[in-house]
Amino acid sequence: MSIAPATAPFPDPIMARLDEELNWYDAKSQLNQRYFKRIKIAEIIAAALIPFLSAINFKHVTIWTAGLGVLITVLEGCLHLYQFQQNWTSYRSTSEQLKHEKYLYLGGAPPYGSAANPRALLAERVESLVSQEHAKWASLQQQEEKSKTGS
């Protein structure tokens, strides 16, 4: 006869929310990291090709070198506009903080071990982390808007 661990009849909404947010921030961090690195690699290749092509005396080389310069400018503009590196690091930080909270809670470590209601404390701390991330995002959007209008 095997003894299976008891499971709750309903999924825990607090843990479901935590896992949902953790997965979202992890996936978005990875996505932003990929975009950032791919654009940077393209910039590096384009920049490395410019002096190489400049040394070649073929017809239409100047068009290609100018095109690479334009490409570098466009890629750098995209990095600035979409903030891939900042999003990557911010989302990774939030993901790691959420993971930290999850393991403290599951291990019954402070502050959860001594809390009167550990589940409520977990919910409060998870929502606080997510709210902080949203507030940072909104603040960055406002700063971007101000820099565009010159106010």
What can you tell me about this protein's structure?
This protein has one domain. The mean pLDDT is 91. It has helices at 13-54, 61-82, 84-107, 118-149. The radius of gyration is 24 Å and the shape is elongated. The termini are far apart. The longest helix has 42 residues, at 13-54. With 151 residues, the chain is mostly helical. 79% of the residues lie in helices and 0% in strands.
Gap between N and C termini = 73 Å
Order of helices and strands: HHHH
Mean pLDDT over all positions:
91
Structure annotation, total helices: 4
Helix content: over 70%
Instruction: Write down how many β-strands occur, each being a DSSP E stretch of 2 or more residues.
Output: 0
Tell me the layout of helices and strands:
Blueprint: H1 13-54, H2 61-82, H3 84-107, H4 118-149
Helix pairs in contact: 1-2, 1-3, 1-4, 3-4
Give a short synopsis of this structure.
The protein is mainly α and 151 residues long.
Keywords:
mainly alpha; single chain
